[in-house]
């Protein structure tokens, strides 16, 4: 199954899981990078990040050159922001329309997963969601346990 991992990460947790999955099954990976991201620290991080979710902002992304048509399975990974996915996915979903793909979803979060999977699934109607899994700040909380969990998960899906 030709697989692409697409993720956004501000502080590296989602990157850790995305890279683990991509290395484990040797697949392509696309990091969504806003041209101007929110600060990584302080009040503004939560304030601007939260506002961008609430107002469905579509931050301009650095150019990406992946042809999504080529892939059978697309794995989306996002930190949970204000109970949803990071706004970079608003931009992606306004630019790329997916149909009849297998989809797997993972999130990284601090303690409240919110509706991230429902929101992704809603945006990805017309595709088949074959798996979803959450990780509680894997960079801070037992990296090995979390990366093992990610490896097991992806193997189940691509077997
Ligand atoms: C703007 C913003 C909003 C957040 N909202 C939530 C939330 O609703 N629930 C939660 O559990 N964690 C929330 N978090 C914490 C992140 O989801 C968590 O730290 C995640 O692991 C970060 O992933 P990253 O390192 O890939 O950026 C939020 C973080 C930010 C920056």
UniProtKB/TrEMBL annotation:
<dbReference type="GO" id="GO:0016651">
    <property type="term" value="F:oxidoreductase activity, acting on NAD(P)H"/>
</dbReference>
<dbReference type="GO" id="GO:0009055">
    <property type="term" value="F:electron transfer activity"/>
</dbReference>
<dbReference type="GO" id="GO:0010181">
    <property type="term" value="F:FMN binding"/>
</dbReference>
<protein>
    <submittedName>
        <fullName>Flavodoxin</fullName>
    </submittedName>
</protein>
<dbReference type="InterPro" id="IPR029039">
    <property type="entry name" value="Flavoprotein-like_sf"/>
</dbReference>
<feature type="domain" description="Flavodoxin-like">
    <location>
        <begin position="3"/>
        <end position="158"/>
    </location>
</feature>
<dbReference type="InterPro" id="IPR001226">
    <property type="entry name" value="Flavodoxin_CS"/>
</dbReference>
<dbReference type="Pfam" id="PF03358">
    <property type="entry name" value="FMN_red"/>
</dbReference>
<dbReference type="InterPro" id="IPR005025">
    <property type="entry name" value="FMN_Rdtase-like_dom"/>
</dbReference>
<dbReference type="InterPro" id="IPR008254">
    <property type="entry name" value="Flavodoxin/NO_synth"/>
</dbReference>
